[in-house]
Amino acid sequence: xxxxxxxxxxxxxxxxxxxxxxxxxxxxxxxxxxxxxxxxxxxxxxxxxxxxxxxxxxxxxxxxxxxxxxxxxxxxxxxxxxxxxxxxxxxxxxxxxxxxxxxxxxxxxxxxxxxxxxxxxxxxxxxxxxxxxxxxxxxxxxxxxxxxxxxxxxxxxxxxxxxxxxxxxxxxxxxxxxxxxxxxxxxxxxxxxxxxxxxxxxxxxxxxxxxxxxx
Length: 215
Prior knowledge:
24% strand; 215 residues
């Protein structure tokens, strides 16, 4: 089993306040996956934890990013523009190892990654639980953010995500992995014909294979 070196959280000052990065370093890294959380949770999300544990064995160091509002202990995320400001502020620290950086995140964090990818020079985008629309409001689509990322993009989406099921996603040049039965947090019902462990394996295996295919 590959030994993962986890650094103490690193505070980074941004124009939106103090952010925090927790590095899970690969022994022989060739890529960095920088991943932030959603608007209602932190880096303890099951998918982010699973990726931080699994990807270093595949040569990908994982940097889990806590936005300033979370570091400050606030309950609600600020406006998208402020989230983008916080993300821009941590980018130099994410790029510091001198490796290509995959911009990633779950939910609101996925939107930030898509909106800023080209500007920041991201190598690719990993969009976990991309919130294609608010629940029950498919007419309020955010597809333009996803389609405008401008770099290779992988969407990992729960089959029962009320923010957008896989079949609702538009045609585009991105790749999409469906996590069967999973909701927006990739939780799988106990009665489902799969397990929570298997759902996380679909995520980590799919992301590892995709990251390995990036030039």
